[in-house]
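@channel sequence for tomorrow's demo:
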Amino acid sequence: MLLKDIEGLCNRLDLVEFINRFSGFFARITPFYIEGDIVVLKQFIDELESIPFIPPRQVSNLDSELLHIKKFGILKLDSIFEFIKIIKYFLYLKKINFTNSRHVSSWLSNINIPSEIVEIARSFDDDGKINNGIYPKLDSLNSNIISLKVEIKKSINKILQKDRILPYLVDKQTHLIDSKECLLLKAGFNKCLDGRILERSSAGYFYVFPSQLQSLYDRLDKLQVEIEILIYEIESDISRVFLKNHAFLKYINREFDKFDSIQARVMFAKTFDYNFILLNNSGDIVLYDFAHPALANPILTNIDFSKQILIITGVNAGGKTMLLKSILSAALLAKYLIPFKINSFKSKISNFKNIYAVINDPQNSKNDISTFAGRMIEFRNILLLDRLLLGIDEIELGTDASEASALYFSILKHLQNKGAKVVITTHHKQLASMMAKNPDVELMAALYDESARIPTYTFLQGCIGKSYAFESAIRYGIPLNIINEAKALYGDNLENLNELIEQTSLLQSELRQKEDKLDKLIKSNENKNNELNELISKQNLALNNKKIELENIYNVALKDLKTAIKTNNTKTMQQTLNRQNELLKSLPKPEINKNIKFEVGNRVQSGKSSGVIINISNDMALVDLDNGRKMKIHVSKLKFGSKISDKKKQNISFSLDTLHCLPSLDLHGKRVDEALELLDDYISRCLMAGYDEVIIKHGIGGGVLSKVVKEFLENHKKVKSFSDATPQNGGFGAKLVRF
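structure tokens (generated this afternoon):
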């Protein structure tokens, strides 16, 4: 937004006085808006709020001085001191402990002030005078001037003490005329004093400069000339140093404005206990405990403007326009990081590129254009703006109400499609009722106290409000007989129609609220479903990891068992089995999830027993076991069981007899499924027996059995390699398998 647009908007939103009060915290007059990354600037503000510091003194604009330096000009001491004030302030900031303020300390560390500039800054005191000891000749001249002024004072006192002059003295004071000490004397003074009249008073007396002081003043003038020459030399020397460091002075002058803009916000917020709002991109405007800065004793307002269009209706003089201004004001102030009265923790304001207010002011209307025509020109330009927050006061103003409702309905629909956010005030119930059907439209009514016959300056969301035109007219002194005649002309039918529109809008609002509540419930269930799926995925991952862990344990145990079998030592095998049993006991027991809800019909397992739940009562489950028996057990001791496979798994008892097997397997004449079952069982027994290689005889025949045996061996995890057997062991009709 351009500066002139911002200033015009501040005027329409009644923010001029507030902005002027805020601008008073600046050390140098600059535009109140702020430039740069607003997130980083907010971090700067947060850091400065936590550290006590003194704000900078008032500093003049130095743009013309910088240009003068660039053109080899010589600055006067007062202009030089304006630069010195900036340098001295940065030297002061560098002394503050900002170690816990990352952004401020980083910014200050990048500002390196040249030593010769620092030396010049230290040669001035805080009032802009050159310190003693910097220029000895200047110190000597100043000392002589002081002594000479003392001498002048003594000479005048001697004159005043002479008896001859007393009759001519109007007063015993000394008067300064043309930078000279004079006496105020009556006519005839020349009989006792030689002097020169410099001026006459309004009463006819004479301001006389004694001639005996002339020599002293001549010496004083000579000293003043010498000082002026010396000061010019000092100004020239400093200006040459400034020219050499022109780029730095231009840089630090700009950085001073940046810091000034931030510190002014911090001090403004601390002084009035205001808060900052950091913008977001949600598109929402939610204001809690907010008050427009122009209101003296405001009623704090809570506004939830999350939808695209807000229509404010209701009583005349009930605060509709001020509510519109409040919403736009909050967005504008937050956009430029200006603090104001609001609950920053509960509020949120979106970032808008353009903020525009169409607020009618008849006193400023031009005579050559109608109100409606003027508004159409404004809307022509508004329709081109993007990322827009728009406020329109009395939208139906200036034309036929019915035509206006249709026209503005289409305009608002166009703005809505562009993503604009619009707040309007209106008394036109037809437009409000048309817009109320739109789910992205929020209604808000200014409330009226019918018993007290006054507006409450509060608002109710979700309905169309009455204008209370007749009641307001009575409050402002219109005679009752005129009001009654107007009511009769208005008629009961129109009043009933208005009430019907208001009730319909309220019902539509309630319906939308219920739909929103249902949508939120559906979304909540979807989120819970996603959480459940995520939990299942995590549990499956944990299960796979546990399988890998158990498989590693199994491989270690199998390796130990093979070693024991090869030794053919019963005692060694028993010790190995004992170690594996201890290892099995050391495995972590599965935790019981108390949140699992079992139901009748669930297949469950407890220890080695499995079955189906047939009844649950008081956390006790009755389970129909697979062996035909029934068991009553607490649900905390149950876990979900798997389905029963068609073929029961057989328990393997580790004895020497069951481990014994031949070094070859003959599958001739077997069906495919029978052959694969025998092969699987045979390989398992061979592994437990500790064989390194075996022979599988499958024959040649049609090649079917040979193919499935080959595929089985390729996919078996424990088979390291296999190849056709030697001719004496079956050749192509057998496989030599290695483990």
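heads up for whoever presents: Confidence is low (pLDDT under 50) at residues 362-368, 645-660.
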